[in-house]
Amino acid sequence: MASQSFFEGNGSFWKPVGNGSLFETVGASYPLYPRGVSSPGADITIFPNDTTVLTFDSTGIKLSLALPIISLLLDADRNIWPVSCTYPLSGQYDHLPRVLFYILIVFAILFRHRTRIAEAALGVVMSYSATACIHLFVLLGAYKFGLPWETLGRDVEDAKAYGDVDFWGIAPVVAVSAIVLIPILTWSESFKGSRGKAIIVYWSLLIFVSFAIICSYVYTFGTWYFDRIESVTSCKKSCPMSRSFVSQDIPLWNVDDYNSDECQCNDFCGLISPDAPLRKKQGMVPLLYYEPSQNHYCRDLNEDPLCIYPSAGARHLSLAVFSLWVVALFLGLLALLGVNSSSESVRNTIFRAANMTCRDVVTTIFKGQRQQAVLKKLRLQTPHRHQTAYRRFRRLVAKSVAALYYGLAFVGLVLSPVLFATSIIAIELFLGSISTSERSDAIGSWAPWVAAMLVLLSSAIIRLTRILVEIVSRTFTKIRWLIQYSSEERRELETLENRQSHVEPFLEESIEHVGYAMMHSYWYFAVRIKAFIEWWRDPEKYSVNEYRGHGVLEGLHGLDVYVAEPASGQPPKGFIVLIPDAFGWDFVNIQLMADNFARKKDYRVYVPDFMNGHSAPLYIIDKMKALEGKTWWDTLAKPYHGFWLLYAVIPWIIPNRFSKTFPRVKAFFEALRRNEGAHLPVGVTGYCWGGNHVVQLAAGHKADGKPLVDAAFTAHPSMLKFYGDIEKIRVPTSFAIPSSDPLMSLEQAEGTRKIVEALPDGQKGEVQIYEGYAHGFACRIDPKNADPEGPERAENQALAWFEKHFEGIVY
């Protein structure tokens, strides 16, 4: 039978069928089938007792092939039911691939400190969503960016007027990606310094452009109606249809009912193939609903048995989600402003720009003699210090605009989880009313899960291999010690080796990090709000041009690391690992020191995030200075400043206690020694919190028979146990101690000097006292002395120490 055309009846399914030509009788029926261009010569005769006779010329017809189909339709144990046929979602947007996409997004964010695995998950997310964006452009291009122009009805020849259901498969992928990007672009320090930042920025641009197009189409066309063509299906009479809606003998099929073994339905939707871009010769599939979508979208089936129109609740939810999408698009575009800076930096830049005077504009644009000439010409040589009413108003406007941006950045951070969850729920309810191309047990649905798991597994194998190698290495070391040493000597060696696990437990630490982040979210926001209040009181003070390190951020041995390369461009002559104070690896003063070390002596400097993102807020510096005040007002205010100081310090201590961080620090140095530092010297420098780790690393720990560090330096170390920790030192260690330090008195400094200077050659250390300086001076946060000479001297002391002890080291 030729399939050159289709025909559509103008009556109901139950219109009486008369005797005569089958061609004419079928031509007036409602369901749609392929048919020939002329009558096949078949006639139908219906007798009064409902006996029906079909006569036709069987010449040339292979009855052995045709009769099973006729038998299926005439089977007394089966019923013939109407069914709607539509084009399905393409396989990459089926249920399981979408769920995988959502899970990988959550995985990449929550476990972002597990660099390799998080990067693998993010890579899958980026490639999947970018492919969806390209599909969107191809699809809209094929439709000439003008779909759809029909609302109701059907067309069995050409479906282009109804658009393509894949638009709604693409929409959640792009929308969820855009929502997730808002906090990443605005707040993630790991992203802002990453070597792959350019790739993420280009991906962001692609996502937001696609998201804007989707929002435009949703606003213009709403949730339009797709080409739905009525056909029939043959199901067993025992089919329960318990979850399918039946109104006026027209079933609205539930996917579980239709695909159940009790029903065993067989439809003819695959015979219908209207012309549509990217779907050439593809057959339609039956329209099947998931139960939640059925209950949500199809309310009044007496008036709308085919569920053509969504329920009032569905319309309200769609409107709410669309409004949230518009908000997300706006917040995303704002987030793009700060891809190269922190939210605070963007806020400060906005304030400076909005508060600039004419003189500020001139000094920004022109430099040198030209600047002086322009200033003289405009009579602006002397800055105007007088605060007129206009200047105060300008300052208020500048503060307000900058604060508005910062507030919106916070709104984006707070709203992102809500937008994420709401968008997924709403779009999944809608997509539950659109048929998929394959069932969940088909390889096209679950194969992406396998592929994603293999990608994640390949990343994990790198880590697991290191664990296995370390276990084998330690086992052989224990066997060798058993043969070579006595029991007492072995106990001493094991003490030096440190029996704590060298390998940071992946799942335990990751869950702890996630739990900590969730439990301390209130603290995080409170600290940010407190810092914002300080900025509002004196925006000029906090809006000065900020230094940003010249290094880059990258993942190394499971941690985020700030890397400063030698400025000369020459290969590094050694490695220095800088362990920061309480303000963490992203503190600008720490990055400045790392850049100076790399610039002055051609070292490659690493500043790892040993705190896993739990660094202390910078406003602590101001609180420390406030506690040094001597006036009566300062004394009255000390309880207030002390409260905020404790409020920031106590939650910082919990995840950064030594027992939790030192195994992480030690594991990093072991990996560094076995890889990058296998043939070059490795040094360590630490400040305050990092100083304790430096002293512990200098206790003679080894990896593959080599010391973890060849030389060490620390300034104003804290939390040391005098003098037990000092007596364990077996690596040349240099101390820079201020004359005023509550964490290491001058008496303790002198005691330390006696111990380290009495060590044998190759282990002997030094202690230098910095008169007039206090704790924190080497990091340029001394509340008593802001003279830069002390920090510069400490920096040079460290470099001279490394130069002296790195000389001649060859592995």
From TrEMBL:
InterPro entries: AB_hydrolase_fold, Dienelactn_hydro. It comes from the Eukaryota. GO terms for molecular function: hydrolase activity. Residues 559-805 form the Dienelactone hydrolase domain. Keywords: Membrane, Transmembrane, Transmembrane helix. The chain crosses the membrane at residues 96-113, 125-147, 167-187, 199-219, 319-339, 401-426, 446-469. This is Dienelactone hydrolase domain-containing protein. It comes from Diatrype stigma.
